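Reopening this one. Same input as before:
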Amino acid sequence: MVGAIIGDVIGSVFEWKNVKTTEFELFSRESRFTDDTVMTIAVADALLSKQVFSNLIKNEFESRITYTAKFKQYGHRYPHAGYGNMFNDWLKSDNQKPYNSYGNGSAMRVSPIGFWAKTIEEAMTEAKRSARVTHNTIKKYQMKLLMILFLD
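Same output, byte for byte:
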């Protein structure tokens, strides 16, 4: 998780730019955290809530409620972090359902799950649960699950 956040901050100056080089400053005056860091922290907070409140996220329904609440809470706290248009519209709405995102957000925020889970099966289940809040396409789940396996 820390590595993902550091990578987000380092890469923030290159976001939306087609830069292909290995010669760059790790941190500059323009470096900042982005929406990926904000949502990574939201996932971590949801997982900590699960531990504190005795497995609050024990099924799909409770999972959706918890992740949705955390994503919206942190999104409202950091409204200018660089969210995509569809996520931003979802964030501002009362809608609690996924919005058919095809972006990479669910994969970018997954790192806390790999650290938290005790088994690969638990990681895969929780990754699906966190992704389904915004990404209701199977390809995004598969990508996210692969990232967990490589990050863990």
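So the earlier flakiness isn't reproducible anymore. For the record, The two ends are 10 Å apart (CA to CA).
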